[in-house]
Specification:
Elements lengths: L3 H6 L12 H9 L7 E2 L2 H4 L16 E3 L4 H14 L3 E4 L16 E4 L6 E5 L4 E4 L5 H8 L4 E2 L12 H7 L6 H4 L6 E7 L5 E5 L10 H5 L8 E8 L1 E2 L3 E9 L2 H13 L6 E6 H11 L9 E9 L1 H17 L4 E4 L3 H12 L1 H8 L2 E4 L9 H15 L3 E6 L4 E8 L6 H18 L15 H7 L2 H14 L14 H7 L18
Parallel strand pairs: 2-4, 3-4
Antiparallel strand pairs: 1-2, 5-6, 6-10, 7-11, 8-9, 8-10, 12-14, 12-15, 13-14, 13-17, 16-18, 17-18
Helix pairs in contact: 9-14, 10-13, 14-15, 15-16, 16-18
Length: about 500
C-alpha cells in the first residue's frame, strides 16, 4: 500500500518505462512459459496491435500466451520485479482502445483460458475462464432451459473476461442488468502475483463491494483467471414490438413515456433512419425504410404476462404518435427484428471504410434533444452519423462514419465524438455506459470529473497496483493530461495547477 503522500502524487504524470529492456524481458519470461507461448517478432505481434477501435494501433514489446493460473502468476511477478507494464487481452472486441498494447510492455493474452469449468443447473451458476465467449455460456446452459442474460452486440465473439472488465451490457440489460448484476465471484491475480478471490457463490453483503469495484475496472486492478456468473431461466415466451416514427424527437419521447408508465421491457432499442437503411441492406430485417426512427421493445415472461405488457406498450406508442406498430408473430420474426439491431456495427462497416462509436449515456427524457444536436454536428464536421442505442437506459451508440485515408477525417471524427460525450455530461449523463473509457475517452474524463475525484481513482488503483503497471495510461487521466487538455473542472473559482499552461 502506498503512503498517503505517495498516493497524492500518484497519477500526476504518465509513467516512464523507457528503461525496459526487451532482451531481458524475453529471457525472464522464457524461463516460466512453455515453448511457443512467447512471441516477440514484429510479424507475430501484428495481430495484437489493436482491439475493436482499429484507428489506434501499437505493437507490444512481447505477447505472452499463458494457459494456467500458475503461468499468469509467474508472468506478473516477473513484470512487477522488472517494472514492465502489462495489458491483459481477451477477444480484443472492445471499442475503446482498452486492450491497446503498451509499446514497452507485455500483452498478456488470455485466449487459452477458454474452458467452462462447471455448470450447476440447480444453483443456476456457471464457472468459466475469462477467455470463454459470452454466447458459449448460453449455448452450454441451453439444455437446462437456462442462459446468460447480458448480450452485447459482439456476444458471438467477445469474451467474458472482457465483459467483466468493461461491465458490458447489451440489448436486454434494461430488465436483466449489466455484467455486474449477473456475477457472483471473480478470481484474479494482482501485479505482485497474489491470487485473490472476490465475491462468493452466494449472496455476499459483508464488507465493501469489491466485486462491483473490479467489474468495469478495465484491467487496471487485477488480471482475471476465473469468473462465476448467474444463469436465468429462458422465458416461456418473448415478443418484440417494432414501432415506427416520422420524427426522432417523438421516438425519443416515447421511450421516456414507456418507462414512466411503469413498464420495464426486456429490451428497448432505438435506431434512426440512416441506421435502419444500412442494416436493412445488410440483413433484411424487415425494417421500414421511410421511418425517421424505429423502436424495438421486447416483452418476455408467461404468455399472459407478455400479452398484457404488449398491450400496454402498444397503447403508449399509439399515444406517442407511432406511425406503424408491428408485433412479432413467431420466434423467427422476433429474432429477425433483433438481428437487425445487432448487425448495426458490421452494417456501418459495409458502407464506410471506418466508423467511430460513442458510448455516452443521458437521461431518457433528453434523447430527442441529443439526436437533434447530433444532426447539427454532422453538418459542422462534414461527417455522417448513424444512431443506434439502448434507449431504455439512455445509452447512446452514435456511429460516426469516416475514412481514415482521407487527411483530417479521423481528427474530425474524434472531435465530433468528443463533442457528443461532453454534451452527454452537460445533459446530466456520463461519457460511457458499457464500452469503457480505455484510451478513446480518457480526455473526456477530464470534463466529467474534478481533480479530487481523479485523485481518488488513482488511490483506488494504488491499493491494488502500487507501481501502476496494469494497463497504464488508460481509463483514468493523469492530472497533467487534464491540465493540457484544458478541461479540468473549476472548483470554487479556482483552476487547479495554474502554473501549467493550457492549450
Amino acid at each position: 500500500m502506498m503512503l498517503e503522500n505517495e498516493a497524492l502524487a500518484f497519477g500526476e504524470t504518465e509513467g516512464d518505462f523507457s528503461a525496459v529492456d526487451k532482451a531481458r524481458v524475453i529471457e525472464a519470461l522464457g524461463k516460466v512459459l512453455p515453448p511457443g507461448t512467447l512471441m516477440y517478432d514484429a510479424e507475430d505481434l501484428r495481430p495484437y496491435e489493436c482491439d475493436g477501435l482499429a484507428a489506434y494501433r501499437a505493437l507490444p514489446l512481447v505477447v505472452a500466451l499463458p494457459s494456467t493460473e500458475e503461468q499468469v502468476v509467474a508472468v506478473l511477478r516477473i513484470c512487477h520485479q522488472m517494472g514492465v507494464p502489462v495489458v491483459a487481452r481477451g477477444a480484443g472486441t472492445g471499442l475503446s482502445g482498452g486492450a491497446l498494447p503498451h509499446t514497452r510492455g507485455v500483452l498478456l493474452s488470455l485466449a487459452r483460458f477458454n474452458r467452462i469449468v462447471a455448470l450447476d443447473p440447480l444453483a443456476r451458476t456457471a464457472v468459466v475462464q475469462p477467455g470463454v465467449r459470452n454466447l458459449a455460456i448460453s449455448e452450454a446452459a441451453a439444455p437446462y432451459g437456462l442462459y446468460y442474460a447480458p448480450d452485447p452486440s459482439s456476444q458471438i465473439a467477445c469474451s467474458i473476461g472482457g465483459n467483466v472488465s468493461e461491465n458490458a451490457g447489451g440489448v436486454h440489460c434494461l430488465k436483466y442488468g449489466l455484467t455486474v448484476h449477473n456475477l457472483l465471484r471473480v478470481r484474479g491475480v494482482t501485479i505482485e502475483g497474489e491470487v485473490v478471490e472476490i465475491g462468493s457463490g452466494a449472496l455476499d453483503s459483508a464488507g465493501y463491494d469489491l466485486l462491483a469495484l473490479v467489474t468495469g475496472s478495465e484491467g487496471m486492478l487485477v488480471v482475471l483467471t476465473e469468473v462465476t456468473v448467474k444463469l436465468v431461466p429462458k422465458p416461456q415466451l418473448a415478443q418484440c414490438v417494432l414501432a415506427t416514427f416520422d420524427d426522432v424527437v417523438r421516438a425519443g419521447d416515447a421511450v421516456a413515456k414507456i418507462i414512466a408508465a411503469g413498464i420495464i421491457p426486456a429490451g428497448l432499442e432505438m435506431m434512426d433512419q440512416p441506421a435502419t437503411a444500412a442494416v436493412e441492406e445488410f440483413v433484411r430485417a424487415g425494417y421500414p425504410l421511410d421511418a425517421k426512427a424505429i423502436l424495438l421493445c421486447e416483452a418476455d415472461g408467461t404468455p399472459e404476462e407478455v400479452a398484457e405488457e404488449v398491450a400496454r406498450v402498444r397503447a403508449v406508442l399509439q399515444e406517442s404518435g407511432a406511425t406503424e406498430i408491428r408485433v412479432s408473430r413467431d420466434e423467427a420474426e422476433r429474432l429477425r427484428f433483433w438481428a437487425g439491431r445487432k448487425a448495426a456495427f458490421p452494417a456501418a462497416g459495409r458502407i464506410s471504410p471506418d466508423y467511430y462509436c460513442m458510448d455516452g449515456t443521458i437521461p431518457r427524457k433528453r434523447i430527442g434533444e441529443m439526436l437533434t444536436a447530433i444532426q447539427a454536428m454532422e453538418s459542422k464536421y462534414g461527417l455522417r452519423c448513424m444512431n443506434v442505442f439502448h434507449a431504455g437506459d439512455g445509452n447512446l451508440h452514435p456511429l460516426i462514419l469516416f475514412d481514415a485515408n482521407q487527411p483530417g477525417e479521423l481528427e474530425r471524427a474524434e472531435e465530433f465524438g468528443a463533442e457528443i460525450l461532453e454534451l452527454s455530461v452537460a445533459l446530466g449523463g456520463t461519457i460511457t455506459g458499457e464500452h469503457g473509457v480505455g484510451l478513446e475517452k480518457i480526455n473526456q474524463m477530464c470534463a466529467q470529473f474534478t481533480t479530487a475525484e481523479v485523485r481518488q481513482f488513482f488511490r483506488v488503483k494504488a491499493a491494488f497496483d502500487p507501481p501502476g503497471l496494469l494497463n497504464p495510461g488508460k481509463a483514468i487521466p493523469t492530472l497533467n493530461r487534464c491540465a493540457e487538455y484544458g478541461r479540468m473542472k473549476v472548483s470554487k473559482g479556482h483552476v487547479p495547477y495554474p502554473d501549467i499552461p493550457r492549450f
